[in-house]
Amino acid sequence: MLGQLLDGRYKILEKLGEGAFGETYLAQDQKRPGSPHCVVKRLKPGYTDHRVLELFEKEAEVLERLGRHPQIPQLLAHFADEQELFIVQDYIEGHSLRKEIRPGRRLNEDYVVRMLHDILQVLVFVHQNNVVHRDIKPENIMRQLNGTLMLIDFGAVKELGTMSVNPMGQIATSVVIGTLGYMPTEQAKGKPRLCSDVYSVGMIGIEALTGVYPLSLPEDPQTGEVIWRDRAEVSDRLADILDQMVRDRHTLRYSSANEALLALQAMIDIPPNPLPAAPPAKPSIAQYLGSTINALTLKVDVLTVNMQGQETLRRANEIELVSEDLGDGTILELIAIMGGTFRMGSPEDEIPDEAETPQHSVAVHPFFMSMFPVTQAQWRSIAALPVVNRELDPAPSRFRGKDRPVEMVSWYDAIEFCARLSQRHGRTYRLPSEAEWEYACRAGTTTPFHYGETLTPDLSNYNGNHTFGSGPKGVYREETTPVGIFPANAFGLHDMHGNVWEWCADHWHDTYENAPRNSQAWLIEDESESNTHFPRVLRGGAWNRDPWTCRSAYRDRDQPTTRNKFIGFRIVCDLPKIG
Questions:
Q1: Does the CA dihedral 66-141-192-87 come out positive or negative?
Q2: DSSP alpha helices (H): ranges in 153-228?
Q3: What is the pLDDT of residues 1-40, one digit of tens each?
Q4: CA distances from 510 to 306, 355, 358, 397, 460 (A)
C-alpha cells in the first residue's frame, strides 16, 4: 500500500495500525491545496459476502453523521477500489491518552474529573445517535494540540439492531468487538449496550487514578466488581460515580453517557482543563518581533451569555500582545494567537447557509492579529508613508473619528496598507486568511457567537431591530462605533461581531468543498486578467446588518475594488518559529 494513490487523490504515506477487520494508513490528499494529511481505513481483503458492502456503506453513513461533532473526526470519503473498501477521515494532530495514562503513574483527581467530563460530553452525542462505540480506551482518545479531546476509531461502531462482520468474513447478528479490560461482561457476550461504553470510560478513569492496567486489578469473587479504591487517592464522591460506571451487572450502571455526565456534573465541580504535565515554556513574545518591541501581558474579561442574552459566566483571561509605534503617538496592538485545530463552518443545528458547509477541520499555525479593526488614526499614519503600489486617501471614512474603524477602503487599499507597514517595519503584514479569521473569532468556542448562543446590542454594534434566537432587541446605532467599547473574546480580540465587515485574503468559493485543511488563504490558481477582480471574502457582519450575518461562521464577498461605509479590515503578522 505504501506510495499507492487511491481514488486518484489519496497517497499512502505510512501504516498507522491494524485490527481484526481493517488497517489504517496516514495519507495525503493530493487534490486539496497544501496536500493535508488524512487517515485511510482499509477493510481487509477477503470479505466476500455480498452483504459486506451494505454494512460498509452503513458504517460510512454512521461516521458521516457522527462527524458533525467537532470532537469526532469528519468523514471525508468512502469508496471501493479494486474490490477493496476504504474510508477516509480527518487526521488528528496530537497524542492519544495512552501517552498520559501509563502504568505506575497516578494522575490527580482534577485531571480525571476533567477527562471524564470531556469524554462523556462527546459520548452523549454518540449515544443520542443510537450508536455504541464498543472500543473506548486511551488509545482511541486523542488530545489535540490545543488540549481538546477527540474520540476516534469508530471502526467498531454498531448501530443498535444492525448486523456485523465476524473475523471469518461471515455475517452475524452479534460479534465480540472491544478490548479486554475496558470491555464489560455483556459486551464480551456479544450483547453491547449504551452502558457498555460507560463502563469503558469508567475503567479509563480508574486506570488514570491507580496507574494500574484494568486487567491487573483484582475482582471481588462474589460480585465480580473491580477492587481499586485502596490503590488511589480519591474522594468518596468521585469513587462512588466510578463504581457505578463499572458495575459488573449492566442494569446497575448509568444507562447512558448522558446519565453518567449528569451525575458527574451534579456531584462535582468540573475543574479547568488540566494537563498531566506542564507545557513547554513559551518564549518571550518580544523574541518574535525583536527586542525593541514593547511586550505586554494583560487580563481581559470574557463573557458568556445564554439563549436569552443574559450573562451566565464572566472570567478573566490572560493575553499577550505587542505594540507597534506607527508615529504621531499612534499605536497598533497585536495579539498573539496560538495555533491549534478547529471545526470551520457551521454545524447543522445552526441551520447554515450552504456557503458555510461542509464543516471541516483546519489546522492553524500561530500568528499575530490586530486587536481591533484598523482605525482611522492608524490608517492616516500609514497612508502618509511612501507609496508601494497605489495612492491612499488619508481620510476616506464616512463616519469620522480617530478611534473608529476605517471604512470606504477597497481590498486593494487594504493590501497597500499592509505593504507600506511591512516596508516600514521589515516584517510581513497581510490580511488574514478566512480560516485564520474564523479561528480567531471563535477563540475556542463552537457556538454561533464567541459570546455564546445569541448576540445582543450591548455586546456588539449591529442592527438591534433584529434578533437571533431568543435574544433581545435593542438599539440600532446606524453608524460605526469606536473600537474596543464591547467585550473581547477569549483571545483578547474586539469587534469580531459587527461594526464593519473585514476583508480576508481569500478568493470567494461558493462552498467549502475541497477547501484547504491548513490555515493558508484559499486562492484561485488562475491569476489572469479576467480574475483580477474576482470577489474576495468578507467576514464579521456590520453595523447595518442583522445578527445572523454577524455569526462566527457567516461569510460574504464583494469585488476587491468595492469601497463603502460598511467594510474595513484588520491585519495579521506571521509568528515565526524560535530556535
A1: positive
A2: 185-188, 194-210
A3: 788 899 889 999 988 877 656 788 899 988 876 668 889 9
A4: 32, 5, 11, 30, 27
Angle at the Cα of 459 from the Cα atoms of 454 and 460, rounded to 5 degrees: 95
Active-site residue flag, 153 = no
* Tens-place pLDDT, residues 398-455: 999 999 999 999 999 999 999 999 999 888 999 999 999 999 999 988 899 999 999 9
Say if residue 189 is exposed, middle or buried (CB neighbours under 10 Å; 0-12, 13-18, 19+): exposed
Average pLDDT over every residue of 292-320: 80
The residues with which 311 forms a beta bridge, in sequence order, are 305
Whether omega before 358 lies within 30 degrees of 0, making that bond cis, reads yes
Read off the amino acid at residue 530. Answer: S
**b/e code 421-460 from CB counts within 10 Å (16+ = b):** bbebbebebbbbbbbbbbbbbbbebebbbbbbbbbbbebb
277 contacts: CB under 8 Å, gap ≥ 6: none
Q: Rounded to an integer, what distance in angstroms lies between the CA atom of residue 448 and that of residue 473? A: 17
- Residue 86, classed as helix, strand or coil, is strand
C-alpha cell read off for 246: 463499572
Q: Which of 29, 90, 118, 135 is catalytic?
A: 135
Taking only the tens place, the pLDDT of each residue in 248-276 is: 999 999 999 999 999 998 877 766 654 43
H or E segment and range at residue 413: helix 411-425
Residue showing cell 439563549: 307
| Structural domains in the chain, sorted by start | 5-90 (3.30.200.20), 94-267 (1.10.510.10), 294-373+400-574 (3.90.1580.10)
